[in-house]
Every structure is written in structure tokens, then in C-alpha cells.
Amino acid sequence: MKLLNKVYTVLGNREKKVVVQNFFSLVILQGANYILPLLILPYLVRVLGTEKFGLVMFAQSLALFLTVFVDFGFNISGTREISLARKNKEKTSQIFFAIMFIKLGLLLLAFAILYIIVNTVTRFSIDAQVYLFSFGVVVGQAFFPVWFFQGIEKMKFVTFINILAKGIFTVLVFFMVKSEADYFKVPIYNSLGFVISGLLGFGLSFKYFKYKLPTFNLVKRLLVESFSLFVSNFATSLYTASNVFILGLFSGNIIAGVYASMEKLILAVKNVYVPLYQALYPWVARQNDYQKKQIINKIMPPIFVISTIITLVILLFAKSILDIVYDDILITSYANVFRILSFISMFSGLNMLYNMLYFPAIKRYKVRMNILIFGGLFNMIVNLIFVHFYDIYGIATIVTLTELLLVFTGHYYFKKLSNQISNPAI
Q1: Do the domain assignments include residue 425?
Q2: Which residues of the chain have pLDDT under 70?
Q3: pLDDT digits 0-9 by tens, 188-228
Q4: What is d(CA 58, CA 68) in angstroms, rounded to the nearest whole number?
Q5: 86 within 8 A of 158, measured Cβ to Cβ
Q6: How many CB atoms lie within 10 A of CB 218?
Q7: Inter-CA distances, 385 with 123, 246, 248, 251, Å
Q8: How many other CB atoms sit within 10 Å of the CB of residue 421?
Q9: Residue 424 resides in a domain
Q10: Is 423 within a domain?
């Protein structure tokens, strides 16, 4: 709450209420997205075993790459466009359908890519059904217009739908996955949850605009403007999803499963910051550049303090946390990997402050793209080298260093751009 109060001095009364409502809706949403899966993870590790669990996580990492491809950066550009046009229902409708048409085309292309991979590459064709069943996540994410609800600042609906879908997945896994032989059911139930939430969200969105199809020029403009965001997000996936993917390719499903079990915990910590940034983004995007700079400067110190405390807790209690969550001797034996990854908590909050909130809000998409391409390529290239010599420890070290590099580069460009901004009141 102290962190949220930092921005109150520059918010009006109505804006305070909207931001707070969306913040808590997003907190609950993130809780559903990460707490429910964390309840399932220990169960899946015990029932499926580390190898099959690793296979399922490996398939999910491939699905994440495809999700980023289909999203095409609209999670940022779509939110901004809707936020600026939300008082005009016809314009809102045109933007909505333009984005959905693009996503549908990309979805079909993504499935074609996956189909070719699982039918031509032996590493994937052996467990083709796991990869194909996992594609339902891509479908659900494509249809769920989170960017739309974020843009009109109606996140409570998104929260309710997601909790419902995740709840269905959780119940199905606990009651239907009983042995290692049931591993293929996990991507089915996971996809089912995403598809249900996607369709519900898609249907609900029609309540908020007048039906009007977009022009070709609008579709083209959104496609062109979002390209740099797509490249940025894909680069981001190179230092997130690629780690499990690389370990799965070079070290096997067991080590991939060990790493994925810890990465899920770190992602849960890392995404503590996401609700705040998502709740603030539509409002920040509407402020002048000087106000945007002031907001970032006020948020920065508490973010650093909170993230440092979280990192220290993991460093001190890494083994105990893994014991409590997974109760698996193999996973606990890699507690030092978890300690290395703990620094991601310290770095990612500041990284996202610049690259998730500030640069998109000032519409410096190419700056963000260049930073994330640098980070993604560094992570991918160095990991492909280090995995041969240091295995899981090399991957953990490089992904942590990548987050640190992103903080440094993000801060450099923040200072560079913000120094060019003067106070309009002077």
C-alpha cells in the first residue's frame, strides 16, 4: 500500500479510485495465475515424476513462444490504443476488431508452424500429443482481450473469468491426474482453462463498444506500429521461456523439470510487480512526459527496497522453501540454483518499471525493442555456450545476469530521455 500511495499525490480522486480498483483486481488475478499453479506444481512433481513434469514444462515453453508470436505486442499497443479511444465506442470497435483479425491470422500461422515441427523433428514427434494439446493455451490467450479490458480499466471482469478458468483446471488436475501415465492430461486441462477464459472474455468485451469493422489502413497501421513491440516481447521470451527449452534440448527432461520447478517460484515472485504496472499503465500513458518521469522517480525507491527484501529471504531460506513446496530430494539438491535465481527478484522489478511501464507509456517502442533484443540475444547466445559446460548452473547464472543488464540499460535510457524533458509549469 505504501508503494501505491507514492503515486497518489499526482492522481485525482476519481483516478485514485479507478487505479486502486484495477490494482487490486490485478493482484487477485496474478494470485490466481500463480498461486493456483503453485498449489498444483508439488502435486504434479510427485505424481508425474521429474522427467514427465519436465516434458510438460518443455511443451509449455514452446507454447509460450507461440503465444508471444500471436500476441504481437498488442498487450501494450492495444492497451494504449483502447485507453486513448475509449470514449469513442465506434473507434474502440474498429481497434478491437483490427487487432482480433490480426491475431486470428497469426494464430493459424502459429498452428501451422507447430504442426510442421511435431511432424518433422524427432525430438517433438515422440510426444506430439503433448505439444499439440498445449497449443490450447495459445488459442485461449489469443481470444482473451486482456489488453481491451486493461485499456477501458475494467479489470474486475478479467479477474473473475481467469479465477473461474484456473479453478476448473486446478480441480481437474487434482481429480483426474493420478499417475505418471496421465501426463498428457495436464496440457489438456491447462488448455481447457485458457480456452474457456478466452471465449468468456471475448464475448463479454462486446458489451463495451458499437459494432463497426476496421479499415484496411487501421489494420496496417496497428500491424506496423506493433512490430517493434512484438520483437521486444519475443526477445523477452528468449530470456524467459528459452531457458527451460534449452535445458530440455541439451540436458533432458529431468534437468528441465528441476529448473522449471524453481523458475515457476521465481516467476511468482517476479510477477508481484505486474499488477501495479498494469493498473498504472493506462493512466500513465495519458499524462504528459514530465509527469511520467516524476511517477517513475517516486516508484523506483520502494520497488528496490521490496525486491531486495524478497531476495534476501530466498537466499537465507532457499532449501527450506524447496522442501516445503516440493518435498523432492532431487529438486532440493539444487538449492544453490534457486539462490542464484533469487537475484531476479531484485532486478526484475526495476527492469519492468522501465521496459513495461515507462518506455511504452512515452511510446518509445523502438528503445524498448533495442534493450530487450540486446538482453534476449545475450541470454540466448551465452546460454547455448554455458549449458555445455555448466549445465543448469550456467543457465541460472546467465538469466540472472541478463536481468541485471536490462536494469542498467533501462536506467541509462530513462536518464537519457528524461533529461530532455522540462517541467511545463516553468
Answers
A1: no
A2: 1-38, 238, 421-426
A3: 988 988 898 888 889 888 888 777 787 888 888 888 888 87
A4: 16
A5: no
A6: 17
A7: 21, 11, 15, 13
A8: 15
A9: no
A10: no
